[in-house]
Design brief:
In chain A, 32% of the residues lie in helices and 19% in strands. By secondary structure, chain A is of the alpha+beta class. Chain A has 2 domains: 35-347 and 418-565 and 732-748 and 755-804, Glutamine Phosphoribosylpyrophosphate, subunit 1, domain 1 (4-Layer Sandwich); 568-602 and 609-693. In chain A, helix 16 (568-580) packs parallel to helix 19. The longest helix of chain A has 27 residues, at 79-105. The mean pLDDT of chain B is 93. Classes of the chains: A alpha+beta, B mainly alpha.
């Protein structure tokens, strides 16, 4: 009896120990997790930072002042110390995010999340993300200065990681029950690849090939014109390109492979984009140039940005950094301010590969059989055996699609050529920008930036403004890279790149302002081939019209413009609908809502009902217009918004207006009425469940935690107006991820805010403290500290060399 | 002092000391050890260490959390479907710790009997 009891209690004890010490499904190891001494309760703390910390490898003492937004202002004696401190301080606030994002870039999420992430990881491996990071790293390490700073940053991060014990680990590690690994310089390269993928990997080549085959060339060209009639390009139309003496690549006489592709890898968010602009002193109320930038990205917590001031005796720089990369990415120093928007150029193309046989050791190119190489990708999976995936590489790049992945032919595949695989030292341009003093420094800094191609806006205290569209951009033949190409035909390869000095740019234009909003970079007079592959068509016109509307502008005007919710898109379609739609069949309920939207002023403000009607109506109308594109087993992409509205208003009887599933032949007017009635139904339903569909409530914007918007760590129902096409490009979970305005006075005065907070710890009040002010359109004055002992510092931490 | 209160105090003291350098299961050790040396009877074998660790963990977490306005406790409470109520999470934490200690105490009691015979 005694023995039985002993045995029972022993088994029970072991079971309880195991049960509380082990992660079971999504539930963290609950005993470990809730243990007050070193579990999650230890993260219940604010980030008040002071005292003195010893850091390995520092040459001199570094002082870090924190201001009231928890923005660190780092004062170091030299740049190596500066970047070592940047690594340490960034890790201190954002370690989990830094590691998670670089794991995501490397296709290593399965290690943390288990089987659910395997498909994601495989896509990243087949996209050649790690391969690209390795190429970039080779070039970065080739530059002694960059490599020294990268190593210093990496050591700084590791100094922090090594100082952690169990109780200090960020919440997410405790939740998912794993530990951070050491940082490496390769992880910085991976982070830059993560950004390159985010901004320069979107393309529709394979979908376009399907459309071309399905509807024919004439229809394709009609749906996807290279240029729209309405185009207010980034580089002013009147720019004279006669200085360019390089020819556009000649178009070869050849056939394109019209293969049918059923599925393509995940695309990045179509709204990834940004606004930036700068006005010259002559257009500024104070006489100082003013510059603004707001990058539109997924709204995440912790935020993609971390604001810092980085100073040495030779320079002081402040602005938004990317945790994991060195220096300030969007910001200003004592002499200049700069920012970026995405250039959205097509720098990823696809080639059909013909293998010699099913062994796939050789592929056809230039009438020869050339050898392939294989990269073994081992994907570790939490709680399971690793998955091996062999990815074949050709001179084009990785054969992403083959019979092991989304394709079934053992003797062919589709290879990717991507500027992201060429590699480049894309860290150095930012390090140089941080120290730039004038236009020449700015130009020298960005010259070697290869990817993701950006529209670099610039303004200086000397009074210059400029904008360069900078990246490594292939000099394509007309039409090259719109569709799947023939991987065996050398003429289909990228032949050369546009010489850097011929990248489109403008300096001190006569109109007194420069701007970009991801629209077409140029008009048709630019000698190199550029086609519309998803350029922005609304925000840019509102911005440029604004700067043409009067003579002088102030910082207040800049704030108003960044928060401008004028819906140009709606204003270009709705009046036409009101004119043509037969409203006689509307019920009284429908009529009421119709009157509501008819009286709309086209501003998507949170308290209005009309923007909710528009949002729902447009969504339905767009979907029904392109019902021809809803086919299984064939990857297609629907035409862009601008072209859709052009079709609805200028070609209302086009065949695409017909609804395939009905016997009648519909026109645009029918689509308007059908979708309006459905809209009313949907909104009535919503109203009965949630109350009035005022836009703020109906849109329900949110900022989601990086772990699939884990509700506990996310913020929901944020009242912010606008939509993806307004200058204030705040969509449901995407929008202005950092708003900055800099007046180039001496020293510059800057405003900034982002939808998040400086701390990555959900237990800190600085985790999400800026969100409400951001939504309300407010700004914080960035406290650009001119000396090392400012009085308005909230707390100060001193980093000292550990051997002292 | 009753044996119950001695056990209660000893459990807390051992748990507090061990928590400084052992992982969460230090509370199981505390329950086990105090049962081994201050063996109790019937339900008290479980209940006393349970209450001791319940008190230790819930008071400790309350102190940590209240000084930070329960910011994280509210979120973790949401995560565990406790309606965002931080006090509920504190109670749950106490129960988890107490339960682990109580179960270990049952084993301790059996071991103490083994030694005595």
């Amino acid at each position: 009896m005694k023995n039985i009891k002993l045995l029972t209690t022993l088994v029970l004890t072991i079971a309880v120990f195991y049960g509380l010490n082990t992660k079971l499904g999504a539930v963290p190891p609950i005993g470990k997790f809730l243990n007050p001494a070193n579990g999650v309760w230890q993260n219940e703390t604010n980030d008040v930072i002071d005292g003195t910390i010893a850091i390995n490898g520092l040459n001199a003492t570094v002082t870090v002042h924190y201001d009231e937004q928890l923005i660190p202002h780092i004062f170091a004696e030299n740049e190596t110390d500066l970047y070592r401190a940047q690594g340490y301080i960034t890790a201190k606030h954002r370690l989990w995010q830094m590691e998670f994002q670089t794991h995501a870039a490397a296709g290593r999420l399965s290690e943390i999340l288990g089987e659910v992430a395997v498909n994601y990881d495989r896509e990243e491996r087949r996209r050649g993300m790690v391969y690209g990071a390795e190429q970039a790293l080779l070039k970065m390490m080739d530059d002694p200065q960059t490599s020294r700073f990268l190593e210093a940053y990496s050591d700084g991060v590791n100094n922090y990681i090594n100082s952690l014990d169990e109780s200090d680990l960020p919440v997410e590690y405790k939740l998912l029950d794993y530990k951070p690994e050491l940082w490496t310089v390769k992880k910085t390269a991976l982070l830059l690849m993560y950004m390159t993928k985010m901004l320069a990997s979107r393309n529709h080549d394979l979908e376009y090939t399907n459309i071309l085959r399905k509807f024919g060339k004439e229809r394709f060209d009609f749906l996807y014109p290279d240029f729209y009639e309405v185009n207010d390009p980034i580089i002013p139309k009147e720019t004279d390109w006669s200085f360019i003496d390089t020819e556009i690549t000649e178009t070869p006489q050849s056939e394109l492979p019209l293969d049918s592709i059923s599925q393509t890898i995940t695309k990045t968010h179509p709204d990834n984009g940004s606004n930036n602009w700068a006005i010259s002193g002559s257009k500024s109320v104070t006489g100082n140039p003013i510059l603004a930038n707001d990058p539109h990205l997924g709204l995440k917590l912790p935020s993609v940005w971390f604001v810092m001031q980085l100073s040495t005796p030779n320079h002081k720089t402040m602005g938004a950094t990317l945790p994991g990369a060195l220096g300030v990415i969007i910001g200003f120093n004592e002499h200049i301010a700069w920012g970026e928007t995405n250039a959205t150029r097509d720098v990823m193309d696809w080639y059909k590969i013909e293998f010699k046989d099913s062994k796939r050791t050789h592929y056809k190119h230039d009438n020869q059989w050339k050898p392939t190489t294989v990269r073994m990708e081992s994907i570790k999976v939490k709680g399971q055996e690793a998955i091996l995936d062999s990815v074949i590489y050709t001179h084009h790049g990785p054969v992403t699609y083959d019979h092991n992945f989304k394709s079934d032919n053992a003797k062919s595949g589709y290879a990717m050529t991507w500027v992201g695989h060429i590699g480049g030292n894309n860290q150095k341009p930012f390090l140089d920008l941080n120290k730039a003093k004038n236009y020449d420094d700015y130009l020298n800094a960005i010259k070697h930036f290869s990817a993701p191609a950006q529209n670099f806006v610039f303004a200086s205290t000397e009074g210059d403004i400029a904008l360069w569209i900078q990246g490594l951009l292939p000099n394509k033949w007309k039409g090259q890279g719109k569709f799947l190409m023939d991987g065996s035909n050398p003429e289909h390869d990228w032949q050369s790149f546009i010489p850097q000095e011929y990248n489109a740019h403008t300096k001190n234009p006569e109109r007194g302002f420069v701007s970009s909003a991801n629209q077409h970079p140029v008009d048709e007079s630019y000698p190199f081939y550029v086609f519309n592959d998803g350029y922005e068509t609304y925000r840019n016109r509102v911005i440029n019209d604004f700067f043409r509307s009067k003579d002088k502008f102030s910082v207040e005007d800049f704030k108003a413009l960044q928060n401008n919710n004028f819906n140009l898109k709606a204003s270009e379609l709705l009046p036409y609908i009101f004119k043509t739609m037969d409203a006689s069949s509307l019920t009284s309920e429908e009529q009421l809502m119709y009157d509501q939207i008819k009286s709309w002023d086209f501003y998507s403000e949170v308290d209005d009902l009309a923007p909710s009607i528009w949002m729902t109506w447009w969504h339905k109308l767009y979907k029904l217009t392109w019902d021809e594109f809803e086919v299984e087993d064939e990857a297609l992409s629907t035409p862009f918004t601008f072209q859709t509205i052009d079709m609805l208003t200028n070609h209302p009887e086009d065949e695409f207006m017909d609804i395939v599933s009905t016997e009648d032949k519909e026109t645009a007017e029918d689509l308007f009425l059908i979708t309006f009635k459905e809209t009313v139904k949907e909104l009535q339903q919503w109203k009965s469940e949630h109350g009035d569909f005022t836009y703020g409530d109906y849109k329900a914007a949110f900022v989601g935690h990086l772990l699939q918007a884990l509700p506990a760590f996310s913020r929901f129902n944020i009242p912010i107006g606008g939509d993806r096409n307004t200058v204030n490009a705040a969509a449901k979970n995407h929008g202005p991820s950092w708003r900055m305005i800099v007046e180039l006075s001496t020293p510059p005065k800057a405003l900034g805010i982002y939808p998040g907070g400086q701390s990555g710890n959900p237990g800190s009040k600085y985790y999400d403290n800026m969100i409400d002010d951001w939504a309300a359109g407010r700004y914080y004055t960035l406290n650009f500290m001119m000396n090392v002992n400012p009085e308005d510092s909230m707390s100060t931490q001193t980093l000292i060399p550990s051997n002292q | 002092m009753t044996r119950n209160s001695i056990n209660f105090i000893i459990t807390i003291v051992i748990a507090v000391i061990l928590s400084q350098f052992l992982p969460w299961w230090s509370v199981m050790v505390a329950g086990f050890v105090s049962a081994l040396f201050f063996s109790l009877k019937k339900a008290a074998v479980f209940v006393v260490p349970f209450l001791a660790i319940f008190l230790f963990w819930s008071v400790y977490t309350f102190i940590l959390s209240s000084s930070n306005d329960f910011i994280l406790a509210k979120k973790i409470s949401t995560l565990f479907s406790l309606g965002g109520n931080p006090y509920l999470l504190i109670v749950v934490t106490g129960i988890i710790g107490g339960f682990a200690a109580g179960i270990a105490a049952l084993l301790g009691k059996q071991c103490s009997l083994l030694v005595k015979t």
